[in-house]
Amino acid sequence: MPAVYTTLDLAPAVLPDGEGALPGAFARPRPRPEDVDLVVDGRPLLHRLDEAEGVDTVSPLAGDLPPALRAEHLRGLLDPDAAAGPEAPLAGGRRVVYSCPDCADLGCGAVTAVVEHDGEDVVWRDFAWQTGPTADLAREGYPGIGPYRFHRATYRTVLRRLGAERRVGSLTAAHG
Fold it and tell me: Residues 94, 100, 103, CA angle at the centre, nearest 5°?
């Protein structure tokens, strides 16, 4: 049976209200113009994580700024087999997908997933909110999120496009 692929694309980051701002006591800044989200099967990944059923963990959207896709993490997502240097995986083959927009310190919290090659595919699975060297899926996992199977060539094209747009300007400016 042929593999069922997940689509992957990019879009300007917005909060679940569709605009990026929440009223009253929950007010927080709108995402910055350079903030980009991954769109998985037509829906922003951050929104999927925020609405995961049965999750008793911190929403990735709970901070003052939405988590960021950072260049060093992008390189690790592009090369899940890298074993050393800044692209090296966390314990268990995990990769940072989103991190603190200010410092990228794992102690601030990050959304991580196991990222692995499977033949001509790249698979993301076992998403978690991670604040230390290992992820506790029972406590901090996102049940029902993933696994996502991407065709490797399409996956690499989208992530490379993200890297190129980061070098020449924001996704908003490029699409606006």
Answer: 105
How much of the chain is helix, strand and coil, in % rounded to 5?
Answer: 30, 25, 45
**Cα distances (Å, whole numbers) of residue 86 to 75, 89, 130, 165:** 9, 8, 18, 21
> Would you give the distance in Å from CA 22 to the centre of its chain?
21
Give the model confidence (pLDDT) of 73-100 as tens digits: 777 788 777 765 655 678 888 998 888 7
Distance CA 132, CA 110 (A): 9
Model pLDDT for residues 89-141, shown as the tens digit of each residue:
788 889 988 887 777 778 888 889 999 989 999 999 999 988 888 999 988 89
Q: pTM value? A: 0.77
DSSP three-state, residue 1 = coil
Do residues 84 and 115 touch, judged by C-beta distance below 8 A?
A: no
103, 129 in Cβ contact below 8 A? no
Phi, psi dihedral angles at 46 (to 5 degrees): -60, -40
